[in-house]
Amino acid sequence: MGTLIKSPLSKLPFSIITISICAFAFIALLYTERISFLSSTTIFTLSPCAKRSLAKPKDKSADNDEVNYFADDRFEFDPNECSVTSGKWRFNSSIEPLYTDRSCPYLDRQVSCVKNGRPDSDYRHWEWQPDDCYLPRFDPKIALEKLRGKRLMFVGDSLQRGQWQSFVCLVEFIIPADQKSMRRGRVHSTFRAKEYNATIEFYWAPFLVESNSDLKIVGDPKQRILKVDSVTKHAKQWLGVDILVFNTYVWWMSGLKIKSLWGSFANGENGYEELDASVSYRIGLKTWANWVDTTIDTNKTRVFFTTMSPTHQRSADWNNKGGIKCYNETKPVMKKRHWGTGSDKRIMKVVADVVGKMKVPVSLINITQLSEYRIDAHASVYTETGGKLLTDEQKADPLHNADCIHWCLPGVPDTWNQIFFAHL
């Protein structure tokens, strides 16, 4: 019969065994936590993934699902790898806008919705969350450092002016009063951050090409004439700018044929031809693209183009058949890939075609799809017309007076600038 060999552990006191087991378990736990920590940070480094917040935002989206940040495999924003067009708006009441229409002195009354009496404020707390990546928050200090010693100019129509005002308001509050200034002009306006030797400018050119609405706005679209073969008069102001951000869309969408002119305005009635909007738009955008390709030095200047900003004039587009345009809408559309009649896909195709063939790289700030959902964020009846706030009588007639083109600020254009900031 074999001899029973006793384990050395049997000779040790019970307390020592217990302590050893506990110590081993504690070391194992530390090791497990270390592996978990390393795996998460390794993802940040190699993917590269974004930092994840443990704070779960209050959600008012349609599915009301909570954010599981530990299961979130979205990566840090990279303009070459992540599309911002696919995503969702998520409500986050814990985050306040960086400014208000009362705190920022540079906002036009047209977009100052709260100051104009808008009673609800939820529209200011929706965050755009791309499906595949994290969009970095706008950081005014970093933005100003990136602009140090540079000129940034937004060029386009009143929607582009809204993006310009949004950008100014996102950074101005951290600049001492004696270190900033604003000069407003009819065509060209400049905000100056003296400490940074930087300017944030807006240049009015609603069609980019020259038109008879460049100085004195022609209110009747039937009387507008576009010089589709020239940007020369405008482009003199674009020379020497370090960062150019262009847009043009809504002025082309009158529903009428565009009076398109070649040569001099002196030709008058005999010099233009009436063309479909998309045809005239293509000619005009090619004229702009040719100027960019033949003039811009890519070692000195970066070029961006903000895609079309949707209008929300038809409530049936989002199945609110009893609604009146965007009036009284308080939540975004939650239907994935919603696309209304206020966004012309022919124009989007023109932009893609023309920009895609340019020699100078143009970064698209693609804001169309994400803005399509935001039926709740327009100025509506909380705005002005003809330089005067809407009267109570006018507010009671939203069918004729609700502005479903321009956006309240703070609001959706802040997200456009968040995307632009991520590209800088």
Automatic annotation (TrEMBL):
<keyword id="KW-0472">Membrane</keyword>
<feature type="domain" description="Trichome birefringence-like C-terminal">
    <location>
        <begin position="135"/>
        <end position="422"/>
    </location>
</feature>
<dbReference type="InterPro" id="IPR025846">
    <property type="entry name" value="TBL_N"/>
</dbReference>
<keyword id="KW-0812">Transmembrane</keyword>
<dbReference type="Pfam" id="PF13839">
    <property type="entry name" value="PC-Esterase"/>
</dbReference>
<dbReference type="InterPro" id="IPR026057">
    <property type="entry name" value="TBL_C"/>
</dbReference>
<dbReference type="InterPro" id="IPR029962">
    <property type="entry name" value="TBL"/>
</dbReference>
<keyword id="KW-0735">Signal-anchor</keyword>
<dbReference type="GO" id="GO:0005794">
    <property type="term" value="C:Golgi apparatus"/>
</dbReference>
<dbReference type="Pfam" id="PF14416">
    <property type="entry name" value="PMR5N"/>
</dbReference>
<feature type="domain" description="Trichome birefringence-like N-terminal">
    <location>
        <begin position="81"/>
        <end position="133"/>
    </location>
</feature>
<comment type="similarity">
    <text>Belongs to the PC-esterase family. TBL subfamily.</text>
</comment>
<feature type="transmembrane region" description="Helical">
    <location>
        <begin position="12"/>
        <end position="31"/>
    </location>
</feature>
<keyword id="KW-1133">Transmembrane helix</keyword>
<dbReference type="GO" id="GO:0016020">
    <property type="term" value="C:membrane"/>
</dbReference>
<protein>
    <submittedName>
        <fullName>Protein trichome birefringence-like 3</fullName>
    </submittedName>
</protein>
<dbReference type="GO" id="GO:0016413">
    <property type="term" value="F:O-acetyltransferase activity"/>
</dbReference>
